[in-house]
Amino acid sequence: MNNESYKGGEHMSLTEIPGLDVQRGIAMTGGTMEAYYAVLSMFCKDSEDRLAYLGIIPETSALLQFATQVHALKSASGSIGAANVSSLAAELESAAKAGDISLIQDKLSTFTEQLSELVKNIKTTLEKNEELGMKNEKNFTSSNPNSSKLINKYLHDLASALDSCKAGEISRILKDIKEATRLEPLDPIRKESLERISDEVMMVEYDNAKKIVEELLSTGN
User: Are 92 and 104 in contact, with CB atoms under 8 Å apart?
Assistant: First the structure.
């Protein structure tokens, strides 16, 4: 399987990202480089948000929330082929569930350092393709003038993809939705719902993501 993607005649390679088994990541996210690229972008945003929470050792009363955070990172890092980070997250999740603060103290800094380094390496590589992304956005703007109707169409498509657990299709549609939202400002409720959908997808919680999609479609928000 190729770990390179070609868009508009330009070349993109992810082989230089340390800490990733790219071939495994591609297979886990639908089998295409384009889908993998989209998942990596979501992974960086999600991880940065969660890293802000993981800066300190949790109190005993916060262990359940801590376990939820590292569980999400375990699933997300596993899905992109970051085995070492995923394994550390699994250890921290088990420790939190067992109330083992000493293990968390021992492992948390290593985990956050490795995760931060991974995110930095991914972003460095993705940013090399920023110009290509801007060209794609320009083409999207020219060919899709009615973004509201397009977003609703994508949401219907997303619901079907979530129902059949097609990871590659889910990633592609989420990327299309992200591009569409750049063309038209979203109200806070709709924006938050779309962010929640991305979070659930990152945790491979497709049923939860589908419920949020259905709520958006039923309310018109």
Answer: yes
- What is the distance between the terminal CA atoms of the chain, rounded to a whole angstrom? 40
Predicted confidence (pLDDT) at residue 190 exceeds the cutoff of 80: no
With 60 as the cut, is the pLDDT of residue 45 above it? yes
Asked if residue 16 belongs to a domain, the reply is yes
Return the DSSP state at 187.
P
Domain boundary among 127, 152, 186: 127
- pTM for the predicted model, two decimal places: 0.62
Convert the pLDDT of each residue in 153-163 to its tens digit. 888 889 888 98
Q: Is residue 151 part of a domain?
A: yes
- The whole-angstrom separation of Cα 129 and Cα 204 is 26
Considering its fold, how many domains does the chain have in total?
Answer: 2
Range of the domain at 199: 144-219
